[in-house]
Specification:
Layout (H helix, E strand, L loop, with lengths): L9 H21 L5 H30 L3 H10 L1 H15 L6 H8 L21 H7 L3
């Protein structure tokens, strides 16, 4: 019998969410007007950034269990931007401040500079309905 490998570890999830967010940024940068699809994409970006933030915390806790306190804290410090941008983007969406979206996206681009998007892998069903899901959550 072979080993059981968990493919849903925090690093794999983080990489998947980073790739998804990078593709969303690319799609959003090509939009010429704010339509329902752009709102869905922005909301999905919030959900991706949240997932990244949650994964960082679980990774840091794993390091702390092994008594690597400094490594855990460095990991948290390196990735604090994810939770902060998720909160800013969510506030922008809930406040209907869409005119601020381009500026926020420009700030986010450098965080995804190391991800090369040569071919778009995510289909539109990855973000469909995300705007309504986000708004239906408690603020």
């Amino acid at each position: 019998m072979g080993r059981v490998v968990n493919i849903n570890n925090p690093t794999s999830v983080r990489n998947y969410q980073m790739r998804t967010a990078a593709e969303l940024l690319r799609h959003l940068s090509q939009k010429t007007e704010l339509d329902d699809e752009a709102k869905d994409m922005a909301a999905q970006l919030v959900l991706c950034l949240r997932a990244i933030d949650e994964g960082i915390e679980s990774s840091a806790l794993a390091w702390e269990k092994r008594d690597y306190w400094i490594k855990a804290e460095q990991l948290r410090q390196r990735w604090t931007w994810a939770g902060a941008y998720a909160a800013r983007l969510e506030k922008l969406i809930r406040g209907d401040e869409w005119e601020s979206l381009p500026r926020l996206l420009v700030e986010l681009f450098p965080r995804f500079a190391d991800i090369k998007v040569t071919r778009l892998m995510r289909e539109s069903d990855a973000w469909e309905g995300a705007y309504q899901r986000l708004l239906s959550e408690k603020a």
